[in-house]
Amino acid sequence: MAVWVFGGRLGLRGHLGACRLLCSRFQSRSSQGEEDGNRVQSSLKTPKIPKIYTKTGDKGFSSTFTGERRPKDDQVFEALGTTDELSSAIGFAMEVITEKGHTFAKELQKIQCTLQDVGSALATPRSSAREAHLKLTVFEEGPIMELEQWIDKYSSQLPPLTAFILPSGGKSSSALHFCRAVCRRAERRVVPLVQMGETDANVAKFLNRLSDYLFTVARYAAMKEGSQEKIYKKRDV
Fold it and tell me: Do residues 26 and 35 make contact, with C-beta atoms less than 8 angstroms apart?
């Protein structure tokens, strides 16, 4: 089984193992503080590495951050899975973009981290969340405003749009257009959860701005690489 915890996806055993590791470190520091010349600190056992599989999801159910068990095709997990897919698509695009030396690769990495926060918010359905859960996974407006600033920065350097652009413009641009399409799907999966009151509206707003950002940097990458963007032309009847 895998549970969704604050900051991302982690197996339940992995979560417990991490807690034990942190506890061991704190115990070690405490022991060192008490140690004097006549006492030697006892060695601490290294915690076992947790298995990646637990088999508790074999019946088609998984757990949210609140501990609630839901079917794996639940709307919450549909939104989580699509957001994870989006982060993976961005990771692939970053490999292409980095090879071309584009400076906005750092922005994309920051976006991947923010998508982990999006996942935490989605994995905390309000219908089963306690106040403590909501405090840990609240999604603020800051990332949305940052995307808007980035969009404005790149838009000011681009030629105006005069036609409908097809996904094209070289490898970097095409990879970013693919990310944009996945982002739109993630937004469609999140909107019902917002309407049901299960997650914060800021999550949907972020994904909406992110698709605009991805479209903008796709055009920017094409311009910087000197690649021609393909334009939609209506077929002759």
Answer: no
